[in-house]
Amino acid sequence: MLFKKKEFVTIEKYLEVNPLLVYTKVYQAISLVWEQTLQKAKEYLDDGDKNSALKLLSQYSKTSSKNKIIQELFKEYEEFEKLNTLIRENKISLAYALVHSNPIYLNSKGYKTLQNNWQKALESANKYITNINGEAKINKIFEPYRGVSEKTQDIQDLLLHHKVYKKFIDSTLKKDYKLAS
Fold this sequence. Notes:
By secondary structure, this protein is mainly alpha-helical. The protein has helices spanning about 10-15, 25-45, 50-55, 65-75, 80-90, 90-100, 110-125, 135-140, 150-175.
Protein backbone atom coordinates (compact mmCIF):
# COMPACT_ATOMS: atom_id res chain seq x y z
CA MET A 1 0.00 0.00 0.00
CA LEU A 2 2.81 2.42 0.91
CA PHE A 3 4.67 1.41 -2.23
CA LYS A 4 1.72 2.31 -4.47
CA LYS A 5 1.45 5.69 -2.75
CA LYS A 6 5.20 6.17 -3.19
CA GLU A 7 5.72 6.88 0.50
CA PHE A 8 9.36 5.89 0.52
CA VAL A 9 10.20 7.74 3.74
CA THR A 10 7.63 5.66 5.64
CA ILE A 11 8.90 2.48 4.02
CA GLU A 12 12.44 3.34 5.09
CA LYS A 13 11.25 3.91 8.67
CA TYR A 14 9.61 0.48 8.71
CA LEU A 15 12.85 -1.04 7.43
CA GLU A 16 14.79 0.60 10.26
CA VAL A 17 12.37 -0.86 12.81
CA ASN A 18 12.23 -4.30 11.20
CA PRO A 19 15.29 -5.10 9.02
CA LEU A 20 13.83 -8.50 8.11
CA LEU A 21 11.44 -6.75 5.73
CA VAL A 22 14.38 -6.58 3.33
CA TYR A 23 13.78 -10.25 2.54
CA THR A 24 10.17 -9.79 1.42
CA LYS A 25 8.92 -9.78 -2.15
CA VAL A 26 7.56 -6.29 -1.68
CA TYR A 27 10.99 -4.98 -0.79
CA GLN A 28 12.48 -6.76 -3.80
CA ALA A 29 9.90 -5.02 -5.99
CA ILE A 30 10.74 -1.67 -4.37
CA SER A 31 14.45 -2.29 -4.97
CA LEU A 32 13.82 -3.19 -8.59
CA VAL A 33 11.82 0.00 -9.15
CA TRP A 34 14.61 2.01 -7.47
CA GLU A 35 17.27 0.46 -9.71
CA GLN A 36 15.19 1.11 -12.83
CA THR A 37 14.55 4.68 -11.75
CA LEU A 38 18.22 5.24 -11.07
CA GLN A 39 19.12 3.81 -14.48
CA LYS A 40 16.57 6.05 -16.20
CA ALA A 41 18.00 9.06 -14.33
CA LYS A 42 21.48 8.14 -15.59
CA GLU A 43 20.08 8.04 -19.13
CA TYR A 44 18.60 11.51 -18.66
CA LEU A 45 21.93 12.78 -17.35
CA ASP A 46 23.69 11.11 -20.27
CA ASP A 47 21.40 13.05 -22.60
CA GLY A 48 22.16 16.26 -20.70
CA ASP A 49 18.65 16.53 -19.22
CA LYS A 50 19.43 17.24 -15.58
CA ASN A 51 15.95 18.60 -14.84
CA SER A 52 14.20 15.37 -15.89
CA ALA A 53 16.62 13.36 -13.77
CA LEU A 54 15.95 15.60 -10.77
CA LYS A 55 12.20 15.32 -11.27
CA LEU A 56 12.38 11.54 -11.59
CA LEU A 57 14.50 11.13 -8.45
CA SER A 58 12.65 13.72 -6.37
CA GLN A 59 10.32 11.10 -4.91
CA TYR A 60 13.34 9.36 -3.37
CA SER A 61 15.22 12.46 -2.22
CA LYS A 62 13.45 12.57 1.13
CA THR A 63 14.88 9.21 2.19
CA SER A 64 18.33 9.52 3.69
CA SER A 65 19.84 6.40 2.10
CA LYS A 66 18.60 7.23 -1.41
CA ASN A 67 19.34 10.94 -1.10
CA LYS A 68 23.03 10.19 -0.53
CA ILE A 69 23.10 8.04 -3.68
CA ILE A 70 21.30 10.78 -5.63
CA GLN A 71 23.78 13.42 -4.49
CA GLU A 72 26.72 11.19 -5.43
CA LEU A 73 25.18 10.56 -8.85
CA PHE A 74 24.82 14.25 -9.59
CA LYS A 75 28.33 14.89 -8.29
CA GLU A 76 29.70 12.21 -10.62
CA TYR A 77 27.89 13.80 -13.56
CA GLU A 78 29.10 17.34 -12.78
CA GLU A 79 31.77 17.22 -15.48
CA PHE A 80 29.73 15.26 -17.99
CA GLU A 81 29.02 18.30 -20.15
CA LYS A 82 32.78 18.89 -20.23
CA LEU A 83 33.21 15.37 -21.66
CA ASN A 84 30.67 16.06 -24.40
CA THR A 85 32.40 19.36 -25.21
CA LEU A 86 35.79 17.64 -25.44
CA ILE A 87 34.34 15.04 -27.79
CA ARG A 88 32.71 17.70 -29.98
CA GLU A 89 35.97 19.67 -30.13
CA ASN A 90 37.87 16.47 -31.01
CA LYS A 91 40.13 16.71 -27.94
CA ILE A 92 40.34 12.96 -27.73
CA SER A 93 43.18 12.52 -25.24
CA LEU A 94 41.53 14.91 -22.75
CA ALA A 95 38.19 13.14 -23.21
CA TYR A 96 39.75 9.74 -22.46
CA ALA A 97 41.51 11.19 -19.39
CA LEU A 98 38.18 12.54 -18.11
CA VAL A 99 36.45 9.20 -18.71
CA HIS A 100 39.13 7.38 -16.73
CA SER A 101 38.87 9.83 -13.87
CA ASN A 102 35.08 9.22 -13.74
CA PRO A 103 34.42 5.52 -14.38
CA ILE A 104 30.66 6.08 -14.48
CA TYR A 105 31.21 7.67 -17.90
CA LEU A 106 32.34 4.31 -19.31
CA ASN A 107 28.69 3.45 -19.92
CA SER A 108 27.80 6.79 -21.47
CA LYS A 109 26.87 7.51 -25.06
CA GLY A 110 29.82 9.87 -25.29
CA TYR A 111 32.30 7.12 -24.42
CA LYS A 112 30.62 4.74 -26.85
CA THR A 113 31.00 7.42 -29.53
CA LEU A 114 34.70 7.72 -28.67
CA GLN A 115 35.12 3.97 -29.01
CA ASN A 116 33.19 3.84 -32.29
CA ASN A 117 35.36 6.63 -33.69
CA TRP A 118 38.46 4.73 -32.56
CA GLN A 119 37.28 1.59 -34.37
CA LYS A 120 36.65 3.63 -37.52
CA ALA A 121 40.13 5.14 -37.26
CA LEU A 122 41.65 1.67 -36.89
CA GLU A 123 39.76 0.39 -39.92
CA SER A 124 40.77 3.42 -41.94
CA ALA A 125 44.43 3.11 -40.94
CA ASN A 126 44.43 -0.62 -41.74
CA LYS A 127 43.71 0.25 -45.35
CA TYR A 128 47.09 2.00 -45.60
CA ILE A 129 49.23 -0.82 -44.18
CA THR A 130 49.92 -2.21 -47.66
CA ASN A 131 50.44 1.23 -49.19
CA ILE A 132 54.16 2.00 -49.57
CA ASN A 133 53.59 5.68 -48.78
CA GLY A 134 50.89 4.99 -46.19
CA GLU A 135 52.87 5.86 -43.06
CA ALA A 136 52.06 9.57 -43.30
CA LYS A 137 48.37 8.81 -43.79
CA ILE A 138 48.36 6.40 -40.85
CA ASN A 139 50.03 9.02 -38.65
CA LYS A 140 47.46 11.61 -39.76
CA ILE A 141 44.56 9.28 -38.88
CA PHE A 142 45.99 8.57 -35.44
CA GLU A 143 47.01 12.16 -34.70
CA PRO A 144 44.01 12.83 -32.37
CA TYR A 145 44.83 9.67 -30.38
CA ARG A 146 48.42 10.64 -29.55
CA GLY A 147 48.67 10.84 -25.78
CA VAL A 148 45.93 8.27 -25.15
CA SER A 149 47.93 5.62 -23.33
CA GLU A 150 45.47 2.80 -23.94
CA LYS A 151 45.66 3.38 -27.72
CA THR A 152 49.44 3.75 -27.98
CA GLN A 153 50.15 0.03 -28.28
CA ASP A 154 47.61 -0.44 -31.07
CA ILE A 155 49.06 2.53 -32.96
CA GLN A 156 52.61 1.23 -32.59
CA ASP A 157 51.56 -2.26 -33.70
CA LEU A 158 49.87 -0.93 -36.80
CA LEU A 159 52.86 1.23 -37.71
CA LEU A 160 55.15 -1.76 -37.14
CA HIS A 161 53.02 -3.86 -39.52
CA HIS A 162 53.36 -1.11 -42.11
CA LYS A 163 57.16 -0.97 -41.67
CA VAL A 164 57.45 -4.76 -41.94
CA TYR A 165 55.39 -4.70 -45.13
CA LYS A 166 57.49 -1.86 -46.52
CA LYS A 167 60.72 -3.71 -45.68
CA PHE A 168 59.38 -6.86 -47.33
CA ILE A 169 58.51 -4.99 -50.53
CA ASP A 170 61.90 -3.22 -50.59
CA SER A 171 63.80 -6.47 -50.16
CA THR A 172 61.79 -8.31 -52.83
CA LEU A 173 62.35 -5.45 -55.29
CA LYS A 174 66.08 -5.56 -54.59
CA LYS A 175 65.94 -9.37 -54.61
CA ASP A 176 67.80 -9.31 -51.33
CA TYR A 177 65.92 -12.01 -49.52
CA LYS A 178 68.17 -11.94 -46.47
CA LEU A 179 66.71 -8.53 -45.56
CA ALA A 180 63.18 -9.94 -45.64
CA SER A 181 63.87 -12.46 -42.90
